[in-house]
Design goal:
By secondary structure, this protein is an alpha/beta fold. Helices cover 38% and strands 15% of the residues. It contains 14 helices and 13 strands. Strands 4-5-13-10-11-12 form a six-stranded mixed sheet, with helices on both faces. The longest helix has 16 residues. Bound molecules: pyridoxal-5'-phosphate. The site of pyridoxal-5'-phosphate has 18 residues, from α4 and α8.
Length: 407
């Protein structure tokens, strides 16, 4: 039995029964999972939460699957690390990094797919398909393997090598596509119904967002239930940002936090910045971003289904949407690594670059408590970082050769 009371369309408000296989509403809107929070608040007290398990499933009263269906590899409850040098260097006195690179499959995609695959187990789904620019595919392949479910993955041919190798190793059926994630999405939509695949594309099913919302619960708990003044989030499909915004509303209904919210900062790449463009032009939805390109594979989403929810969250919070260049991302990633010992995905590093810009603009104060989400590990991006440390470049080769070549 699902712990949710119902599913609700985020566009038109139509209600659907919980505990059924569901994709989008007939109006095209993504579905959100709803709970009887009034009832839950009397049964589950904030002071009991720290006794829970050391994974995102410590919040299982507000996650939909039954305990018996949970497919876990230890996702979530990632460290929130107070920076020692980087904050001082950029002029932020109270700066933390939430290190999502510590998740199974080395990205926060593990949270969403642990929850989605658990619901597949509960609902008896045997075959799942996904279009992915990288890390979602790895996480889907891992959790499908853990649950004994078949997975079908469509990824752009130039996807990072690590993601391709992981998916193959986990036993997924992988198709490399000459195109972008949007082209991969079309292929899943076309072939899925005939093949009997359940489509776990971003926001086309309601449960990945539930897994990702636990990032919002965790940051509150780890900061003693006092949310920070600003959260920086590298935004592709925007599910993490939408999920955290939902988590804050739920926690307020549970009586765990007040009405104060962090400024939500959506960070994108200059080569693919549809949300930033819509934010600057005061539009409620984004437009398809032509010729999308960036080394941050997770940010290469030219048009997000939940763009209006991201823009709502950013605007209601008094936040902003900011774009940074690939060069700025990689520089910031190397700075974060050398200052703090955190080797971030370019997506996470983008938050450091965006932080510099917003401190300069005056939107944030140096005394604000600020949390940056490093959504993945730098270890998954050797192609991107090797452009900065070429082994065969002049000079480097001699040094390295001298060290590692047996004479
Ligand atoms: C997918 C991904 C993102 C974007 O996540 P959304 O919640 O879909 O916006 C950011 N960083 C990394 C490393 C990713 O894999």
């Amino acid at each position: 039995m699902s712990k949710a009371t119902h599913l609700e369309c985020s566009l038109c408000g139509t209600r659907f029964e919980a505990g059924q296989i569901a994709n989008l509403c007939s109006c095209g809107g993504p579905l959100l999972v709803r709970y009887d929070l009034d009832k839950i608040r009397h049964r589950w007290l904030r002071r009991e939460v720290p006794n829970g398990t050391s994974s995102m499933w410590r919040y299982s009263p507000v996650l939909p699957p039954a305990d018996s269906a949970i497919t876990s590899l230890g996702e979530g409850w990632t460290p929130l690390i107070r920076t020692k040098r980087l904050g001082a260097r950029v002029g932020a006195e109270a700066l933390w990094v939430k290190d999502e690179g510590m998740n199974p499959t080395a990205s926060f995609k593990a949270r969403g797919l642990s929850c989605a695959i658990s619901m597949c187990v509960e609902l008896g789904i045997k075959k799942v398909a996904i279009p992915s620019a990288g890390n979602a595919a790895s996480a889907l392949a891992a959790y499908a393997a853990a649950a004994g479910i078949e997975s079908y993955i469509f990824m752009p041919r130039d996807v990072p090598q690590a993601n391709y190798l992981e998916c193959k190793a986990y036993g997924a059926n992988v198709t490399l596509v000459d195109g972008l994630i949007s082209d991969c999405g079309k292929m899943v939509a076309e072939r899925g119904p005939k093949e009997g695949w359940f489509d776990v594309s971003t926001l086309k099913e309601p449960y990945r967002i539930e897994g990702k919302k636990t990032m919002g619960y965790e940051v509150a708990e780890q900061m003693g239930w006092e949310l920070p003044e600003a959260i920086f989030y590298p935004t592709g499909g925007g599910v993490g940002l939408i999920g955290m915004w939902k988590a804050f509303a739920e926690m307020e209904k549970l009586g765990w936090i007040g009405g104060k919210r962090p400024k939500m900062i959506a960070v994108q790449a200059e080569g693919c910045a549809p949300i930033v463009k819509a934010f600057e032009e005061n539009e409620p939805r984004s437009k398809f971003f032509e010729n999308a390109h960036t080394v941050a594979a997770g940010l290469r989403v030219p048009k997000a289904l939940g763009d209006f929810l991201v823009l709502q969250g950013v605007r209601e919070s008094g936040g902003a949407a900011v774009a940074v260049s690939d060069d700025e991302m990689l520089d910031a990633g190397i700075q974060l690594a050398s200052d703090e010992g955190i080797y971030a995905a370019p997506e996470g590093a983008a938050c450091v670059a965006a932080l510099r810009k917003l401190l300069a603009s005056g939107l944030l104060k140096s005394s604000d408590r600020i949390v940056l989400y490093n959504t993945g590990s730098g270890l998954k991006y050797p192609e991107a970082y090797s452009t900065r440390f070429p082994r065969n470049g002049a000079g480097e080769q001699d040094k390295l050769g001298g060290l590692i070549t047996p004479r």
